[in-house]
Automatic annotation (TrEMBL):
<dbReference type="InterPro" id="IPR011990">
    <property type="entry name" value="TPR-like_helical_dom_sf"/>
</dbReference>
<protein>
    <submittedName>
        <fullName>Exopolysaccharide biosynthesis protein</fullName>
    </submittedName>
</protein>
<dbReference type="InterPro" id="IPR006597">
    <property type="entry name" value="Sel1-like"/>
</dbReference>
<dbReference type="Pfam" id="PF08238">
    <property type="entry name" value="Sel1"/>
</dbReference>
<dbReference type="InterPro" id="IPR050767">
    <property type="entry name" value="Sel1_AlgK"/>
</dbReference>
């Protein structure tokens, strides 16, 4: 895989270790935890930057998330992009399912989002092809449900690839089976509507929407709850009853990945 970003322009360049009284990355991580607990944000960031400069994956990812969200540091999407790029460039072969693998897959997903929209005023321009590459790698190599969901969205919209509802449904289902609430909701919708090569299965679709509602974050994912309520209101009494019976069977069996 070719390098994702040119030479970083900010702290993510890691060309010099921040001046700090740390003997190694592990010492810096302990200091980060201590300073975070004490509310010393400046000290915590300094410790993270030291650990990140020595290649500590958790520190690099944490800093990327902090800069992306403006959490304890001024928001800076380009710095976040460069941290995530360094993680992906140097650790693409991390073992799926491990702690490192989850960090690296998260970096690929974050990069995909940046390539979808670009970063205003920077060298990171919208690039659907690169977004597809990032999400596809996270989805296929790491089996990342967020990557699978976003890859499915690209197939649905024809971004970075040809529009393909069947591929969209395939990847959406994989994410839904892993408990990804938005994927469950969208996949349920796809089954209720059918078409474009996706067989219509309204009862199964209602089941997925019900599972999506149950696993959704009510504050951040109110649209899922609304979509579920709308679909159930439009469904026939028989379909509603059959779908709820399927949900009960899945919950009784303790399975989170129902099969079509």
């Amino acid at each position: 895989m070719r390098p994702i970003a040119p030479a970083p322009s900010g702290p993510a360049a890691h060309t010099a270790l921040p001046i700090a009284p740390f003997s190694n990355a592990r010492d810096a991580i302990r200091a980060w935890m201590r300073d975070s607990t004490a509310g010393d944000q400046v000290g915590a960031v300094r410790a993270l930057e030291y650990a990140a400069a020595q290649g500590h994956l958790t520190a690099q990812f944490k800093l990327g998330r902090m800069y992306a969200g403006g959490d304890g540091v001024p928001a800076n999407d380009l710095k976040a992009f460069e941290y995530f790029s360094k993680i992906a460039d140097e650790n693409a072969d991390a073992i799926p399912g491990t702690a490192d693998g989850r960090i690296v897959s998260g970096a690929f997903v974050a990069l995909g989002g940046y390539f979808v929209d670009g970063i205003k005023g920077s060298y990171v321009k919208p690039n659907a092809d690169r977004a597809f590459d990032m999400f596809h790698y996270a989805a296929s190599y790491f089996g990342d449900p967020e990557g699978q969901y976003n890859l499915a969205r690209l197939y649905m919209n024809g971004q970075g690839t040809n529009r393909d509802a069947r591929q969209a449904a395939r990847w959406m289902k994989l994410a839904a089976e892993k408990g990804h609430a938005p994927a469950r909701a969208v996949f349920g919708d796809m089954l209720i509507r059918g078409g474009d090569g996706v067989p219509r299965a309204p009862v199964v679709g209602l089941m997925w929407l019900s599972l999506a509602r149950d696993s959704a974050d009510a504050a951040r994912e109110a649209w899922i709850i609304e979509r579920c309520e709308t679909a159930f209101a439009a469904a026939s009494p028989g379909d509603r009853s059959a779908a709820l019976a399927m949900v009960e069977r899945q919950q009784f069996a303790g399975r989170s990945a129902p099969q079509r």
